[in-house]
Every structure is written in C-alpha cells, then in structure tokens.
Design goal:
- The chain is α/β, with parallel strands linked by helices.
- It contains 25 helices and 16 strands.
- Strands 7-6-8-9-11-10 form a six-stranded parallel sheet, sandwiched between helices. The protein has a five-stranded parallel sheet with strand order 1-2-3-5-4, sandwiched between helices. It has a five-stranded mixed sheet with strand order 12-14-13-15-16, sandwiched between helices.
- Helix 2 crosses helix 9 and helix 5 packs across helix 15.
Amino acid sequence: MNKKIDQQAADNIRALAAAMVEKANSGHPGGPMGGADFMHILYSEFFNYDPTDMTWPFRDRFFMDAGHLSTLMYAQYYLMGNYEKNDIENFRQWGSNTPGHPEVDVKRGVENTSGPLGQGHTMGVGAAIAAKFLQARFGEWMDHKIYGFISDGGIQEEISQGAGRIAGHLGLSNFIMFFDSNDIQLSTSTDVVTTEDTAMKYQAWGWNVLTIDGHDHDQIRQALKQANAETERPTLIIGKTIMGKGCVASDGSKYEGHCELHGQPLGHTGADYTKTLLNLGANPEQPFDIFEDVAKCYEGLKKSKTSQASEKKNQIKAWQKSNPELAKKLDLFLSGDLPSLDFASIEHKPGLATRAASSNVLGYLADHVENMIVSSADLSNSDKTDGFLKKTSALRKGDFSGSFLQAGVAELTMAAIANGIALHGGVIPVVATFFVFSDYMKPAIRLSCIQELPVKYVWTHDAFRVGEDGPTHQPIEQEAQLRLLEKLKNHSGHNSFLALRPADSAETSVAWKMALENNKTPSGLILSRQNIKDIPAVTGSRYQDAEASEKGGYLVKQIENPDVVLIANGSEVSTLVEAASILEEDGLKVSIASIISEGLFRSQPKSYQESIIPNDVPLFGLTAGLPINLEGLVGVNGKVFGLDHFGYSAPASVLDEKFGFTGKKVSEEVKQFIGKTALIN
C-alpha cells in the first residue's frame, strides 16, 4: 500500500479520461473522474486475473453498466497494458479499439457491451448466476467474483428492480457492485427526479449495503474486503463521489460537481482543461502519457497478478488430476460444444401445439444437456418450459444444483440475465415467455445480437389464436420485428438473429436442433398455443422431411409445373395444406413452401432458393401477422394474405373464421389471386 502512488494512479486515470474526451470532442469526462479511485483500488488489490491470459475462464469479471463511462475502463486498462497509447488517443474514432461505449473485447478486459443503462449490471447478475451454477457442479475452488459498476441512471432504470430482486433472492454473494453515487446525471441533479433511499431499497431486496466516501482509498479497501468476505448476500457499495473530481477553473479554483461536467469535454464547461491536467499532475503537452511512477507500479502489479493466477492454475491442475471425469465435463461445458444428441428420437403425439412439442424437446434436453439454464417469466406451465422443470429444480439461495431460473414477471431482466450467462461462458441460457411480451425484451434481444451471444429465446402463443385474451395478448406485429433482425448484419457479417417459426412437431424438433447448434447469434423459437395438424410426410419420415428446415425453407408439398406456390411458416402451413386439397379438387396444381427462417433461407444459393420459390410461378403467402412477414418472399407480383389490424377477444376458431384463416377461405383467396394474375398475363 502506497498512498502517494495510489493517488497518482487515480489522478492519472482522471487525466487520461479528460484527455480522451477533449481530443475526441465527444464523450463523458465527469463520471470517470469520479470513479477513478474505486477502479484503481479494485484492480490493483482485489481483482484476480491473469495479464498474460485475459480469457482465462476462472478470472474475476467486471461488468460496466454506465457505458458512457468507457474512458474510465480504457484508462484503467491502459495502465494495465491492455491498450496502446494509440488506442487511447483515438477514442471514438473510426476503426479504433476504444468505441464511445464499451463493446465486448475480453482480451482487453471488456466483458460486456454496455450503453443502454441498467442492462450492464443485470448481465453481471447473469454471470454471477452462471458462476454459482458451475461452482455447484465442480467445487468451491471455482470462487471467482463478478464486479459491477452502476451510476445514478442505471439505478433509476426499471430493470434494476428485477436485477436487484433476483440477485438478493438467490443470495448471489459472488456479485459485488459499486454504485458511483455523485448525485448528478446528464441533464439534472438527481434530487430533481428522485428522493428514494437507495440503500434501504437494496437492503429490502436482501443485499449487503455499504456506504462510503468513494474517494477515500482506505474506505474503498475496507468495503471491498467486507464484500469479498460476504457469503450470504450480494453487496452494494454506495460510493459517494464527486462529478468531475479534480477539475479546476481558469483561476485555479475547484470546479467540481457540476451537471455540465457529465456529458461534454471540459473545454466546453466552466472548467479549464489545461489547468485541470496540471492539477492532476499530467503534462498538457503529453496528456496520454502514463506517469512514470504509476507505470512502474503497474509493471509490478502485473507480475504479482500473473504469479497469483499461476498459483490458482496449479490448484486447478491438481483438482483436474484428482477428478478426471469432472474435468472432462467442465472442458466440454467451457468449449461451447454440445454432447451427442438424437433429436429424431424425440416422440410427439399427433397434432400437438408446437409449444407442447417444444416441451417434449426440453424434457429430452434436461436429460442430455447438463449445462443449460432454462428460465421463464412466471409462465412455465403455459410456455411449456415446465417440460424441462419437471426433470430438475429451481435455483435457490444456497442451492444451485437445479437448472431452472424462476425469473418472475420480469421479461427484460430475464433476457439481460441470459446475456450475462452467455458472456460468462460454460452455460447455455434459454428464456421463455409469451410472444407478445417479446416487446418487453427487445432492448436485451438487441444486445444479444450486437454481442453475438447464443441465447435461446422461446416465445409461445404466437398469433391471434391466443383467442379470448384479446388484442393485448395477440401478437400481430411481433414477428415482423424479429424478422428485421434476421435482415440486420452483425459486425462479423452474419445475420444478427435466427428466428424460427416451425410448422409442426417435427419442425419444432429440428428448430431446437438449429437453435442449439447456432453458437454465433441468438435464436428465437416462435411457437403456437393451439394444436396444429402435422404436415403429411413425403419420405415416410416426417422428421427426415423437416430436416430440410436447416436451409431456412423447403417444399412440404411439391409438384411439377405448379399453377401456384403457397408460402407460409408456423401454423399457417397446415392451413395451406387444407387449402391445397380444395384447390386440387378444382384441377389446380399446388406446391407448398414452409419457410421457417427467411434470413437463413436467403443465405442459401440462389439456385436453391429458386427451386423452392420459383420466380416464374404465381406466389401466394399466408401469415397470421403483418403481410410484410412474407412480402419479401412472394415479390412484387405475389400476394400475401395477412392481418393489418389488432386482434379481438373471442375463441380462436371464431377468429379463424372471422379473419379468413380457414382452408376454404384461403383457397378462395388463392383462386381470386390466380384469376387476377391470369388476366394480367
């Protein structure tokens, strides 16, 4: 412990944060200047990692919630050697490694993408759940910590309630969060928007709450010691800090704690940038330099951290030698690979709802995939994730031997937790709710896509056939929203999402296979509430036919030189089968395409796409959602029969009749369309 060096290091972080924002002429300097003391003490004395192996699975992890404080992370990790000076100098610039908000970059220490407030620390809760889950299976030696960093804005976001409740309820003693409480946010001081007692709130959720002076290194140190010693509760360290700590005006007087310091370069405020750098001990001519004594300090720290990690690795090697079968299983979990699975062996009764077929698959997976956590937003008996739950038990405080997370009514929280589980590694997250409530999840789904996380989403009650529950529960526009993500590329150049709406039980089994094997992006299964007639088998094995779904789409009914090709996904495919029978009685030749994923289908060779959906034949699409779901498939000369209005409260069979979703009425629509096409031609 060297108080002089500790202060210099914190001031170095402040100076670097201010310099990055000033050079970029964009960013948030005040918060990083306030949080610098905590970051230095955390990383220099408490944070366990291997500087030579940043992806070491058993490292501590740091989850930033307040992504606008990215310069705080970049400055800290620059001192640790994770960034070059050039990276720091090019903050927020094209092609730099230091984007405006942190983006996953584990090799440099960035564990999560953050920016939308509230989600970052909730992902940290997910990582803590994953760590507890693995520890319950492999031993107490797996004792790494998950640290979070949250701001006033993150505390206010509604998702913090779900994260706080779940972390406290589960007793996540491995989760330690610092609340940078400076009473300033972007446009106001906090007293303008809230008078709640944050400490009492978290205590009510079952947290260990410590309130300290966030600039007093001894108090930070003591709080972190207490937090690391806690065995029953997550810990919230409320650090009372000062926005823009260290800032001075042109006359040398203090200029700290002002709202304007939050979100603009110091030179645009009442603070003097040059005088502030001098006050912090930095050279305004070389603002991106690491102070000489600080550099020496961190060189020594890196050696110490490497040595500590080496000792831990030796302990792990000894455990592996004594527990070869467990070690082999752990390696499989961490690899992201799947055990051998036989989806064809999963049996389904005829005519099931696809949610019920999914339940059968989940029951099979519960017996064969040991590193899966399934979660439901208080709907497990309705979204049918209870097929998994029946084979295991819910996670509980002090008992993480089960594999089911009862998230309660908190869809966004649950989805963000799943992102954190995926980021931690070693565990496959599955989350479920009604499809219409995917609206609550969209911010976290988007971060799943951006971070390229293989989260598995299960959405049931997929259409207006929810029936009596009425328009609030009947998804109409939701599929279109998810299909847009299939059209959006991630930074690796892949479709950012895989949306799968299976037509029957066999396709549901294949859809689960596709989702589990997709380790590059999130996947979503969109499943029916109502029973669906199975699609007639062509080869004699309906499952074998349905395996063609792995190309995104295929013909469930094929005829040479068809008069029309009918296109759908999900439950509407069976309606097309009924309509085709009627049309054939009138002498028409009909083929039917089931397109479970347009995004995946469009990634196939053109020759394959045209073999399924030819461009010289009339094309008719049927969707229980917005027509735009299929308009890209039928083209400008095709027709899509869908809905352009919200649903109504009535039995599903009545709605089918009223909305025209029966084989008879669809056949009439098809004949009318073919007639118009003939007249045009």
